Amino acid sequence: MANFPSLLHPLIAAPMAGGPSTPRLVAAVGRAGAMGFLAAGYKEPAQVDDEIRQVRQLTDTPFGVNLFASDETHVDRAALAAYAASLHSDAARLNVPLGQPKADDDQLAEKVDLLCAERVPVVSFTFGLPTGAIVERLQASGASVLVTVTTPGEAVTAEAIGADALVAQGIEAGGHRGGFTDHDGVGEYGLLTLLRLVRNASRLPVVAAGGLTDGASVAAVLSAGAVAAQLGTAFLRCPEAGTNPLHRAEIGGVQETTLTRAFTGRRARAIVNGFVRRHATAAPPPAYPHIHHLTAPLRRAALAAGDADSINLWAGQAHSLIRELPAADLVHRIAEEARSALADARSRLSDG
Prior knowledge:
39% of the residues lie in helices and 13% in strands. By secondary structure, the protein is of the alpha/beta class. The strands form 2 sheets. It has an 8-stranded parallel barrel, surrounded by 7 helices. A 3-stranded antiparallel beta sheet has the order 7-11-10, with no helix packed on it. Helix 1 (23-31) links the parallel strand 1 and strand 2. The mean pLDDT is 96.
């Protein structure tokens, strides 16, 4: 993979915006022979700069930074207003006003300037397609550029603008869908199917993401052609992760997950809780980041009040399999499990 760091273990700790992806987690994963990602989403450029510096103080191993590349699309204002009205009871119960729905680009240009100046080794994009000019600038600074895709067509488009590699995100993944558009039924492939389709559509190396929590699942995607496996939910209970206490307590059980726009206006996989159930029939429209800003005060108040029934509990479909281990121990455990799973598979295929 052009400019991509050589890793002892082909494992990546996914960027998880909103707190979990701390410099400590990124550094611990890197020192263990894998690679971690900082999540620049929702942060000021100065905070991202500080986190980059913290990682470099903790380790000299390669790391990545993830950026949002979303474009404002048409928003159904009537549907947005109707959804806002459905949130008034939550606002009254939590005693906070609703936020102001608005569009923004998460200061993408300023963050690209920062990553070029800091010569970050790997940069990934989610929620959309960066321009070819942005890709060229990052590559000129020495970065390998990855683009998140959820369909074979997106893979072809990402290759055409010069991306170095792809992150194929299956429908099993926790958190937001990372594709270029947010339409129901689009980009909802299971990971193995998506991986094989993307490998057929594009010549670029592919990182597999979505529902990967243990070595056997990592072995499966490596066998199917991935150059590395990206895991997010698996790291949420590591002590180095900045997962909030309510989220940390809820994941790892038997709760079902679902795709919902209730919290941010973009499809995202979360544990089904009271907020998801209350607003399932309210039909929140595709309106990111408008609904993200609208519900932000509710989520902050619920977190402060210890109300896990009213916050976003992002989790992949296989969250019941996650383990509470230090990040380095988890990397080594998953790598050993993957080696064992691959050896078992070879033995079942040998000689007939």
